[in-house]
Amino acid sequence: MPRRKAAAPADWNVLVFLNAKNDLEPYSFLNFEQMAKVGSTDRVNILVEFGRPRRHYVDLYGPWSKTLRFRVTKGMKPTEAKAVADLGSVNMGDGAALADFVTWAREEYPAQRTLLAIWDHGQGWRRRMALTVQGSAAEVRALARRREQARSRLGERAGSLAPLPDDMRVHAVRYVSHDEDTGDKLYNREIQDTLAALTADAPLDVVGFDACLMGMLETAYALRGSGTVMVASEELEPGDGWDYAGFLKPLVADPAAFDGPALGAQMVRAFADYYGDRDATTLSAVALSGAEPAARALSRFATLATSDLATHLPAIRRARKACENYAPGYGLNSIDLVRFLDQVAAAPGVDATLGRRAASARTAVAGMIIDNYASTQRQGRFGSAGVAIYFPESKRAYDADPDGDGYALGNTHYPVEFVDRQRWARFLHAYFDEVTR
After folding, report:
1. Which of 48, 288, 319, 381 is surrounded by the most beta carbons within 10 Å?
2. How far is the C-alpha of 52 from the C-alpha of 21, rounded, in Å?
3. Where are the domains of the chain?
4. Segment of 18-22, 133-137, 154-158, 171-175 carrying the highest mean pLDDT
């Protein structure tokens, strides 16, 4: 591929690793069109690696089934003719593909600051799974209604959209970026290792996940050495995902006004403006420099809780019962960490030292939050202060999780660093020994 002529560095590169090689393909065009409403300038490059599956879910912009790269300009359509690079067949579930995209962007389009967005299905620290929706009939109907509301926002495109499966597929468990053509996916550990190798001298300003359920302490901890700010959702994201035009327009208008935290906050505000209270939605921007202190403070809490669990169990169990699982009806197990720690500290009869450690950990976790949004449907017992954590309510819930091995002590399959290095997993397993149902 011929190299571009060197140019003065832009203020910002916005990199979108847009893996639409799965059933989210129809929504990819909505987001590309949002980017094209704004378009690149000489100070902001909007660069997209866009993959489509061999089996299309929607017939738009030509029948190409491969991976193309675009420098998105105002009014651009994602056709083969507009691409700046044709990569052919690329496994977008491979860390090497992510590394190649970031490296290419840096070499061909130098910039002072970088946002990297990973677009696809996602789910925190976990691996891929497909589940039949669980829960009451009302919960199932609510999930179906939200799905149809998201589909309806496709407008006239909805007519060419293949129906979603009845099992309401939930992708991802400790991964993101599922490539349907290859069956591969980017595990969080793979993303962590990939970015660590690329950012040792220059961390990314923002690492964002336009994907479900990635706003977890485990994810932030994994990225603490690779970026300054993480933008992610504690809850499921609707199919529309982020409002790209909502944060790109002000960025392009005055790129010098934005550093990583400012852009992260703008992304949260744009998301809040787009969804308001019409969906069960969350998004937060967190300072990755706070992940290590928060993890250490939580480990001090977990160590004390584990050391005399019989004494501390009533307060802990009461606190856990006061927290709602995100993605209700899917049988998943992440909760808002600030709400849980608040409930422990306020529990009747809680041991004073445990209460102080819960409050200290709460302060450390809340200190990570740059900006946070939660719709009314995800306030109350959900909390949604901005950072979630894995916490099945009982051993039965943990055993029912087909991918709970990610929290198994000694797991070696794309091990989660937070699980290995911090004390939370040990606390959970001690808790499961006491709370079986």
Report:
1. 48
2. 5
3. 10-289, 292-368+377-434
4. 18-22
